[in-house]
Predict the structure of J domain-containing protein.
Amino acid sequence: MTTSEGDQGEGAGAQRTPAGGGATRPEERLEQAVRAAEKALIEFEIAVETFRVEVENFSRLHEQKLGPMYARLEELDARILEIKAARSDDPEDRRLADEARARLMPIPGVEELMNGWMDGDGLFPEATAMLTDQPVRPPQRVRPSEEARKLYRELARKAHPDLAQEDKERARREEFITRVNAAYARGSAEELRELAEEWAAGPELKRTPSPAEELYARLEWLSQRKELLTLVARNLEESAIGSMLRLAPDDPDGLLEDIAAQLRTQVAEREAELAALSD
């Protein structure tokens, strides 16, 4: 070996040896990128899931609290149009009145067809619960308590399936996170505390170094997962309920009360109009 070859070999060796004297593995930076991508994805999933729960809770509470007022408004509008049509005897007024009344009529025969499982407004809550294993009890608030939100985030970061490297461990985490999500959707801090204790007593995940090709595949999967979550988040934000939530991101429960107050005012106005027409 010539002197220049020896110098080149020594130089190459020096490039592979850090100042501390330890050898640097080729996959080390790739592993760091994977860990960073995993952490970022989990935080993104937590944000999407918490927003999804708020959208779902807002939708259910919106229907529960405001549905009767919307129904009352539609009934008053139909009656007002019917009186106006009777007085004017105008075909256009009659058409508008008939359309308004038709919107209030349930779909004929639906309840008999579904053997009592649903009516014109959709599945009964008990039927939905049986089909989806979801609780019948509606949420108390749009946004779960701060304690529940903190417990949920901590559990999601520790037990997220994306941290699993083996199929068996991933299945265990998926089953556990499903229960965590259900408890959070119910806003139950007590259930989440119990789940935290259960996880703390369970087996710890043992990570093993991954070959470079597996790390590249992992990064690609994480990127695809992020794209899917971005689409889910966009759909949530652009939905009717998501758009309403953006009007009051800090107090969604207060937004429901504001809408209810506006509806009560509209109902009072329609009732006064109907009374005047009936005189």
Observations:
- The radius of gyration is 29 Å.
- The chain has eleven helices and two strands.
